[in-house]
TrEMBL record:
Entry-linked PANTHER family: ABC TRANSPORTER PERMEASE PROTEIN MG189-RELATED, ABC TRANSPORTER PERMEASE PROTEIN MG189-RELATED-RELATED
Residue runs in coiled coils: none
Pfam families, A to Z: BPD_transp_1 (PF00528)
Name of the protein described by the UniProt record: Carbohydrate ABC transporter permease
Cellular compartment(s): Cell membrane
Record field: transmembrane: 12-34, 68-92, 104-124, 136-156, 193-215, 239-260
Signal peptide feature range: none
PROSITE patterns: ABC_TM1
Species assigned in the record: Nonomuraea guangzhouensis
Membrane-related topology note: Multi-pass membrane protein
Location, primary (coarse class): membrane
InterPro entries noted in UniProt: MetI-like
Keyword terms of this UniProt record: Cell membrane, Membrane, Transmembrane, Transmembrane helix, Transport
Residue span(s) of domain ABC transmembrane type-1: 69-260
Length: 275
């Protein structure tokens, strides 16, 4: 019908514009990465005349991005593992166990979602410095856990609330302890949510710049997103090499979005429906 067709176009056109606005920066960066410095200076918006893959190799070697890549991988892997462990345990406790103050604790975690990191970055940095955790892997991992744990707890609690309480009661009647219920029942049932939340937490940690810059000031301990800036010095104008570094840093994120987009969508909508 004409009305329904008009409604579809009204929704499709803004979404297409939004998609183009999102894709264009990536296409522009990839195009610049394939140019020579001279071609970029002459016309930065024209298509690259040839594919200069040596720009990627130069960016990888000149900035020491292999070390930064390893730093990011180690930090993100341990931070996400700790976030999922603590988040799943807290989500199980807040959603299925009946104890005094559980609602207050959940509201406290929910309130943590509305506190920008800029508000707590000074006291957090002071605490880390006094504890000797600045410029260490554990310091950055704990900072990520502190920042993203409220989000993880919220989503895991929302997911576990969709599981009938009768399942937990039946497991307790069969003789399982609280830990046994969590390990044998709730943890397997929470695998889909854990996968979705883990992907989102990994993206948050991988793309982070501010927390990493505060916790890892030394060049040899920087993460990949901070290390890319080494390609732009005070007097350097080699924008194609810098764009190549940005492209390398974006590849893992693009692969995650490309192959795990369904899990990402499920993680964003976790807990929005019951049943």
């Amino acid at each position: 019908m004409p009305g329904r067709r008009l409604a579809r176009w009204a929704a499709a056109v803004p979404m297409a514009v939004l998609a183009l606005a999102t894709i264009y920066p990536l296409v522009f960066t990839a195009n610049v990465a394939m140019k020579t410095r001279r071609d970029y200076v002459l016309d930065r918006f024209s298509p690259a005349g040839s594919l200069r893959w040596d720009n990627l190799a130069e960016a990888w070697a000149s900035a020491g991005m292999a070390r930064y890549f390893v730093n990011s991988f180690v930090v993100v892997a341990f931070a996400v593992a700790l976030l999922l462990l603590l988040g799943s345990m807290a989500g199980f406790a807040l959603s299925q166990l009946r104890f005094r103050g559980s609602s207050v604790i959940f509201l406290g975690c929910l309130a943590g979602l509305f506190i920008p990191f800029q508000v707590i970055m000074v006291p957090l940095t002071r605490i880390m410095a006094d504890s000797g955790l600045i410029d260490t892997y554990p310091g950055l991992i704990l900072a990520y856990v502190a920042q993203f744990l409220p989000f993880t707890v919220f989503l895991m609690t929302s997911h576990y609330r969709t599981i009938p309480a009768e399942i937990v009661d039946a497991a307790r009647i069969d003789g399982n302890t609280v830990y046994g219920v969590y390990r044998r029942i709730m943890l397997p049932l929470g695998v889909p949510a854990l996968l979705s939340v883990g992907i989102l937490d990994a993206l948050f940690c991988w793309n982070d710049v501010l927390i990493s810059l505060l916790m890892m000031p030394s060049p040899e301990h920087r993460t990949l997103m901070i290390g890319v800036n080494a390609l732009r010095g005070q007097y350097s104008d080699d924008i194609p090499t810098f764009a190549s570094g940005v492209l390398i840093a974006a590849v893992p994120v693009l692969m995650i979005y490309l192959f795990l987009q369904r899990q990402i969508a499920e993680g964003v909508t976790a807990g929005s429906t019951k049943g």
